[in-house]
Every structure is written in C-alpha cells, then in structure tokens.
From TrEMBL:
Assigned GO CC terms: nucleus
Species this protein is from: Alexandrium catenella (Red tide dinoflagellate)
Protein's name in the database: JmjC domain-containing protein
Residue stretches making up the JmjC domain: 35-203
Transmembrane segments: none
C-alpha cells in the first residue's frame, strides 16, 4: 500500500510528470515534486503572505499527487508550511513542538529508553530513509506497549477537503492520511521575516489578480537548511 517508510527513496527513470500520471493509479507510488512552471502560473500565493515581507523568504513549493489511501510518517518540517488541497480528502494529526525534548530524547535507541520510535538517519547512515522521523512506528497500528510515550502526548486533528488549506507552523509534528480517492495538493515552505515589514502591506482590490507562484522568487534557505528535491515515493 501507500504507507510511507522513506526506505525506498526516489524512483529511477521516472523524471516526467506525464510518465508518473500514466502509472500512479495502478502502483504504490506518489509524487512529491517542485511544481512545474506551467502550473505555477495557475496557483496563487495566499493573501496572508502578501503583507509583512514574507514573499522575500519563500523557500520551496511542492506538488503532491497520489491515487488515495496514502499514510505519511510522523515528522516535522523546519519551515513554515501552507498546504492547500485541490482534490480529494486528507486528515492531519498535529503535535505541538513543546513535546520535542521528550519525543526526540533517544534517537535510534531501543525501547526502552526510547518511548516514541524516533529515528535520525543523520546520526547513523546505515539506517534506511532520510532525515529525522518516527520511523519505527506503524501509523496503522500504534504499538503503545513498545512506545507508551504516545499515550501522554496531546494532539490535534484537521480534516481537509478540496478547497481547504492548512497552516502548519515550523516545528509542529504531523502525520497525514489521504482519503480513498485521488489527492492533489500544493504547499509553500517559507520562513518568517525577523521584523514585520508593514510598508509592504498595500491594500489590494478584490479584482486584483494577486501574486502567482510563478511571479515569486523561491529558494530562500537559512543557514543549515537542507535542500528539497523531487521524490517519487514508494
């Protein structure tokens, strides 16, 4: 099924969107890719980012496509995340970063002392996958005997349908579960300006075409941020 493990990595020989679209509906792959330039002209930046200087700190945009039924690993992003759903349904489970000290206390350790199933591949390159995530959890069948720490963690749920957007603040842990039908969503990763730039807040007419993804400069990356590329996940 479409349960993310981060173990398979990117698929070789699948470099065009058209090729992916021919195969994804009958295989266990989904697309995570920078949005093609032609699509960027059709997607507008949400108005809340027009004001304050945020447009100077845009990191990356991503297009996600899946045939439905996908389940992500539990993870967090190091940037602010605005995620909008164009087709299908998705359920987000979210955990506040105040739990970080406990959740990430024992990376790559056995249970006990690890109580959450946390893996950090950056600390042990022999482990499968990439980055830091809760790779020992089965998101379909949480083992609360082996990882009892999750019994104590407060979490929130957000259900999205086509036309909905969600803001996931930097550092919030999340896990995403797609509904049974095709899902298409786009996200923008960005960082907050150190100082709110009020001078950039110019009232816009309701008839204004707004700011499209293609109008923006992307690629801002603070020191230490990892580059984000194309991934066709198994």
């Amino acid at each position: 099924g479409l349960k993310e493990t981060r173990a398979a990595g990117a698929l070789e020989g699948l470099s065009r969107l058209g090729t992916f679209l021919r195969y994804y509906n009958r295989s266990d792959i989904h697309l995570v890719s920078p949005m093609p330039r032609s699509m960027q002209r059709e997607v507008h930046v949400l108005p809340l980012l027009h004001c304050g200087g945020f447009l100077n700190f845009l990191g990356a945009h991503k297009l996600w496509i899946g045939r439905g039924g996908s389940r992500s690993v539990v993870h967090r992003d190091d940037a602010e995340n605005l995620n909008c759903l164009f087709a299908g349904r998705k359920r987000f489970a979210l955990v506040h970063p105040r739990w970080r000290e406990e959740l990430e206390a024992h990376p790559n350790a056995d249970s006990p002392p690890d109580r959450f199933g946390f893996v950090d591949v950056r600390l042990n390159a022999s482990l499968p996958g990439y980055g830091a995530f809760f790779g020992r959890l089965d998101v379909d069948a949480m083992d609360l005997v082996r990882y009892p720490g999750w019994l104590e963690v407060a979490w929130h749920r957000a259900d999205l349908e086509a036309g909905d957007c969600i803001y996931i603040p930097r550092g919030w842990y999340h896990q995403v579960r797609a509904g049974p039908s095709r899902t298409v969503n786009a996200l923008a990763w960005y960082w907050r300006p150190q100082r709110f730039e009020a001078a950039s807040c110019v009232p816009r007419s309701m008839a204004s075409p707004g700011v499209r993804f293609s109008d923006c400069s992307w690629g801002f990356s603070p020191p230490g941020a990892a580059p984000q590329g194309v991934r066709y996940h198994r």
